[in-house]
Amino acid sequence: MKQALVDDTEDVSLDFGNEEELAFQKAKIRHPVATFFHLFFRVSAIITYVGCDWFSKSFVGCFVTVLLLLSFDFWSVKNVTGRLMVGLRWWNQIDEDGKSHWIFEARKVSPDMVAATEAEARVFWLGLIVCPMIWIVFFFSSLFSLKLKWLALVIAGISLQAANLYGYVLCKMGGESDISKVTASFLSQTVFQTACPSDFQKPGLEGLEIHKH
């Protein structure tokens, strides 16, 4: 009887290590430098804009500083942080006939390794969505307070950050160009992913899905 009991339990293995390791990988920041600069330039631009009257009396100096920060942010988010943090990329290509094509790429799902952790994905999308909304608030604030000299800078901030947001949402949605469908699909996917994160897979490392427009 003892021998039978030992045999029945011999092949049973409870491997809690893999679950703990998977949870650790999801919470880990795998690209700390990219994550830092994903937020650094856009947050610095907002702080500089808000504190311009305190830091400096020069309107031109503040204008140029904020515009440079916005430009650095646009370049880094478009070319570096999106590719590393969530496996997405978009750009414009001119073909031999001179026609312009917008290309949206998303890495295919790989079962072996996760390219983007949940922590990185949350930081990426949070920074990408919240900051343009702040610039929209600045727009109405400048308009209603009649600080019209700042409107050009605020519009530049909205345009640059909204362009990255729109491009990455199209990458996420597979290149769908109908903005109403994109918005509805993206919001619904975001809500369900927040409620049930384990049911969704992050982009993997191998292969790319390419969509041209």
From TrEMBL:
It is found in: Membrane. The keyword Membrane applies. The chain crosses the membrane at residues 33-52, 58-75, 123-144, 150-171. Pfam families: DUF846. Belongs to the TVP23 family. This is Golgi apparatus membrane protein TVP23 homolog. It is a multi-pass membrane protein. The keyword 4Fe-4S does not apply. One of its GO terms (cellular component) is Golgi membrane. Keywords: Membrane, Transmembrane, Transmembrane helix. It comes from Odocoileus virginianus (White-tailed deer). GO terms for biological process: protein secretion; vesicle-mediated transport. The lineage of its organism: Eukaryota, Metazoa, Chordata, Craniata, Vertebrata.
